[in-house]
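Notes from hallway chat w/ T.B., transcribed later so I don't forget. T.B. wanted the structure written out for a chain they're using in a teaching module, and asked if we could keep both sequence and structure tokens in one place. Agreed to drop them here.
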Amino acid sequence: VDGEIAAPWLTDSAAHRVVMARMRQRGRRVGHRPVVYCVFDLLMQYGFDLLELPLEHRKRQLAALPLSDSGLMLVQPLNTGRLRLRTVMDEYGLQAVVAKRLDSRAL
């Protein structure tokens, strides 16, 4: 899986500080600084390379995986226009987002 370690319930700058502080600690949950691995893409499954498949297909395969571990979070797509996206970014204090077309390959 492809993803990023994050503290998604915090604003962008606070989340960055928490993740950086946690890099120096061990264990999934240390003190009051929990982080999760936000999973957003599936690049290989059962030894098969999925890079040539469209993102939409890889997302379906990813959603079917049993990601019940509390340290994992499946990132849900935000299918919206630019104005709504900007509102969400401002609401969460995000400086940037990554956008991908559903028919894009992972190359």
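Follow-up for T.B.: The beta strands are 2-6, 36-41, 44-45, 48-49, 72-74. Might be a good example for the class.
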